[in-house]
Amino acid sequence: MRIHELAKQLEMTSKELIERLQKLNFPVKSHMSVVDEESAEIIKHEIADLENKEIKENVVEVDFPITVKDLAVKLDKKPSEILKFLLNKGKFCTINQNLNDELAKEVAYCYKINLREKPLKEEQILAVEPKDLRKRGPVVTLMGHIDHGKTSILDHIRKSRIAQKETGGITQHIGAYRIELDKGGITFLDTPGHETFTAMRARGANITDIVVLVVAADDGVKPQTQEACDHAKEAGVPIIVAINKIDKSNADVDMTKQHLSKIKLVPEDWGGDIVTVKVSAKTGEGIDELLEIILIQADLMELKADYLRPAVGVVVEARLSKGKGPLVSVLLQEGKLKKADFCVCGLYWGRVKAIYDDRNNFLVECLPSYPAEILGLNGVPNPGDKFFVVPDENTAKEIVRRRKQEIERKKVVAPVHMKLEDLYAKVKEDKLKKLKVILKADVGGTLEAVESALEKMGTSEVKIEIIHKGVGSLLSSDVLLAEASDAVLVGFKVGIEANARDFAKAKGIEIRTYQIVYELIDDIKLALEGLLTPVIKRIFLGRALVKKAFKLSRGIVAGCVVEKGKIQRGVHSELTRGKDVIFKGKISSLKRFKDDVKEVVEGMECGITLDYKDVMEGDYIDAFLEETVERKL
Ligand code: GDP
Ligand code: MG
């Protein structure tokens, strides 16, 4: 075959082909030069490879979706040309129409351009190597049953500790406050309770380092004590127990400790590992000891932050001040926040105009683990939103623009959360072999019965973990916990609180309630079957005979003929020589002449590439589909 004939087959001019062959080190002089059939075949493959490589390297970065008009500018083509191209593909578009990433990439590919989404600046900003790791103070949340004294303890600490060193500033509530002791500082979150705690966690904001579980000594462990304990444990946050109201005549510390042991919070002096402190918010007794223990726990945890990186924090409260505009309380986690920093928070951005502390003092900068109120954002974000500093105004605007765009994109799709049906897929993704369950029942007896039935169902491969259980209706706090920990909500002979129902609906969380225990067990069993490692069934697709092996720069291409069935790109394959299987792996590329194809059927010739270097003439390549079959318990 002559070069000009080969060029014609490759849809290029002889000159172009010769140029390319020179790049590939093929000694060809003129368009009349002759190449033999085998060389021609190799040339075709090499040229296709070269083209792919060139396209890959020819990167143009854009934002998706992109309009036809903008795409035309990026590709340096006339919009009409692109419209025509789309029309040929059977897509009738207008110049201002948005193209999704797939279609836009396809168009670009034809112009030998690799279209890529601009990398997210946000990710780059947040992923920095720590430069200056230093100690930071702990952030503490108080939790416990209602009326056990959370607010009183917080108020007592605040008044006694802050008032002492007060220099005239009035303390203001900004969602958190900081106290300083000789051995270090502690930040307390103002809103006690596990609901806020878990709501924050569900938003991806784990700001609490230590939980202080408040239990009144005259009342002992109550349902919400247990709930708070489960929420803290599920989040993996260490718990310190404050046994409160010890000034009361009917305070019974022993009874309280006994209760605590029952919910697996065994006090140290009872042989367990839970530190308990006896306190009174009324007299102040034991409060200093509590603070000291918090600092000891913090030391054990070696809490650190990078003081040099761009600042990152979490919103704890936000409001609109009539005179000042949006005021945002943040708890700083990393870096130093300074006046005039550009920042992004939720769907807003701004330049820090002023920073105040919890005593209304102006600050020049704010350090990790400190709360601060910030002025300068262009809107009011939500508690739990991440707050972070960016290099400049354009970056801030661009991140917000993309976030808004992402919301628009997601609007179409309902939020997906844990549903029993799709546990299988989820677990496979995460390689998780645990089904988390939140269980509520009508009375204690049935709760225990259902619990033990569920626990027995676990196998060596899958475990059922009841992360929270209780008597009574399913509450919004249960939904929150399910959201934060991706658990399944199960109710037995109980109702769902109206709020919880709406909330679950909005969050896309499924609640299952049952009246008959066997139905409950059956459903969970099905979910567990999905969790089991599936059996893989093979479906034979076809067989190809290797007629020639071409050595190319990227590996070996097997020139084959399909003898039986069909071969598909990307499917599983086996290479056999004589009676031996010598390689198992995917069919990494499949070509007909120079084109990549998805499928080649019986009787046709094709080029197959495997991740294997030693393919030989006379080998067979078998193609399979692998299908997963669910197993029964
Ligand atoms: P919270 O619901 O956990 O925030 O509980 P509060 O702090 O609102 O306290 C509930 C009630 O218990 C209030 O009337 C407090 O005055 C009272 N209280 C809180 N701590 C103590 C204490 O140590 N001793 C006594 N005697 N009463 C307390
Ligand atoms: Mg309170």
Number of helices: 18
Shape: elongated
Low-confidence parts: 412-416
- Sheet of most strands: 6 strands, mixed
Q: Which hetero ligands occur in this complex? A: guanosine-5'-diphosphate, magnesium ion
| Sheet with most strands: strand arrangement | 7-8-6-9-10-11
Mean pLDDT: 86
> Can you count the beta strands?
33
Rg from alpha-carbon coordinates = 33 Å
Name the helicity range: 25-40%
Q: Report strand %.
A: 25-35%
Structural class, from helix and strand content? alpha+beta
CA distance, first residue to last residue? 64 Å
What does this protein look like?
It is elongated, with a radius of gyration of 33 Å. The chain is about 35% helix and about 30% strand. A six-stranded mixed sheet has the order 7-8-6-9-10-11. A six-stranded antiparallel β-barrel has the order 13-14-20-17-16-21. It has a six-stranded antiparallel β-barrel with strand order 26-27-32-29-28-33. With about 625 residues, it is α+β, with helices and mostly antiparallel strands. Helix 15 packs parallel to helix 18 (about 515-530). Strand 10, helix 11 and strand 11 form a beta-alpha-beta unit. Bound molecules: guanosine-5'-diphosphate and magnesium ion. Guanosine-5'-diphosphate binds near residues 144, 244 and 282.
